[in-house]
Amino acid sequence: MIELENVGYNYGGGELLDAVSVQLAPGSFHFLTGPSGAGKTTLLKLCYGALTPTSGRVRAFNMDVHGLDRDQMAYLRRRVGVVHQDCRFLDHLPVIENIALPLLVSGRELGHEEANLHELLNWVGLSERAHALPPELSGGERQRAALARSVILSPDVIIADEPTGNVDWEMSQRLLQLLVELNRMGKTILVATHDLSLIRAAKNQVQARVLRISNRQLQLAGADL
Amino acid sequence: MTDSKLHKLILGDTQANRVVPPTGFTAQLTLFVAGAMGFLAVFALALSMASGRLADRWASELARAATLRINAPAEQRVAQTEAALEILRQTPGVATARALSGEEQAALLAPWFGSSLPAGSLPLPQLIEVTADDPGYDPAGLRLRLQAEVPGAVLDDHTRWREPLVDAARSLRRLAWVSILLIGGATAAMITLAANAALAANAQVIEVLRLVGALDSYIAQAFIRRFTLRALTGAAAGVVLGMIGVWLMPEASDEGGFLTGLGFQGWGWLVPLLIPPLGALVAFAATTRAATKRLGELS
């Protein structure tokens, strides 16, 4: 699905990542962990094309991400669902329209997707809040809305950056549950988190691999978590 | 552009429109400026068309008319007038030649000397009104012949004062056209500024849209439609007001001279209706350019 080959990245102030190679196989579940500022978000951005590597190659769906123009990049974004650390919404539109936004911008007929949309809202537990505006949502509700938005186009890969960053334990369990369910449906999942207990909880439910960034390198973490 | 795309662009996709938040105040400013520009364009157009008409009329009417003045002692005047009329009748290209009667000559002087002037007792030159045919006569040849046979005759074909007038009317028309171009340019500049402001103010919206996989063309369209429609509506309102203004101006009359002729005639009333679509076109081009440039700069 997504393949990083000897990827390096520097912000100008020095190397942040160096010689990182990883493959996200279809249907796999990966956690990405590491200390704050180690480059978790950067690595995720490299995966969905928001950043271009300073060295090495990123391939997504067998295309070199570097060679994509803006329109091809937009098409790539439709195939990769991203849940950002700070979920951004269109604050003037209610939650339900924000979740349906990917459908709208990709020119799908909203009428046909009505049932799916409501099912999805129900799945993330936001049916009651469908007509609230994004600024009225709590942190957990925002994260769930962002997750719903990222999966509405039924992407093959879902990338989540600290999805449980500012929600309580119960809510993070619930978000994890949703991600696990998506993985069981065959989606490739990559979740960046510094929350080790979340990873432990996931390991009971799913075959998850843990990638750890340390010293600019990516390592496959052992079972000692 | 396919039909469905064009249809979408004009009628809009109400869903897609809502993606960019409404902006009350800037929208009204854009409408106002487009309206003001439409209004001014109507006047510039009226001026250009009126001065164009005037230039054409002066150029053609005055070119056709000439005056022959017989300055001769009273006892020879009648004979010389007869001789001159005879020559004019023989000249090819002269349609009519007619000696003005004493009353007519007095009427010409009346605005300056009043109607109680004893015109008969004054040694006034005899005037002959000459109207040229199409094609006209050769003034130089006519002058030579008159000089030989009617020494007191002076042919005035109005060239001397016609040319500066026609020139003036033509430069007035040129100025009006320059004004119309400037109005178009100012509209484009204003729409570009407004579009850039809107794009900057909606940076977060654009970011979210890119994030969920919107194409640049989709994002740009939301802005382009908005500004094109605003320019169209504003200009239409301005043009209607401007046309009412022109319509309320006094009818063209001899007393009012040039100024009262300012306006549209016949089919000319349809020309200002082109202003709103042209304004919309200008807005479309300006917003497209601004949006393409701006979106290209984003990551």
Automatic annotation (TrEMBL), chain A:
GO molecular function terms listed in the Swiss-Prot or TrEMBL record: ATP binding; ATP hydrolysis activity; transmembrane transporter activity
Cellular component aspect of the GO annotation: plasma membrane
GO terms, biological process: cell division
Sequence ranges assigned to domain ABC transporter in this UniProt record: 2-225
Gene3D superfamilies named among the record's database cross-references: P-loop containing nucleotide triphosphate hydrolases
Pfam families: ABC_tran
Keyword line: ATP-binding, Cell cycle, Cell division, Nucleotide-binding
The keyword ATP-binding is annotated on this UniProt entry: yes
Keyword Cell division: yes
Superkingdom classification of source: Bacteria
Family annotation (PROSITE patterns): ABC_TRANSPORTER_1 (PS00211), ABC_TRANSPORTER_2 (PS50893)
Protein's name in the database: ATP-binding cassette domain-containing protein
Organism: Leisingera aquaemixtae
TrEMBL record, chain B:
Coiled coil (UniProt feature): none
A Gene Ontology cellular-component term: membrane
Database matches in InterPro entries: FtsX
Keywords associated with the record: Cell cycle, Cell division, Membrane, Transmembrane, Transmembrane helix
Transmembrane feature ranges: 25-47, 175-199, 205-224, 231-249, 269-287
UniProt GO BP: cell division
PANTHER family cross-referenced by the UniProt entry: CELL DIVISION PROTEIN FTSX
UniProt name for this protein: Cell division ABC transporter subunit FtsX
Organism: Leisingera aquaemixtae
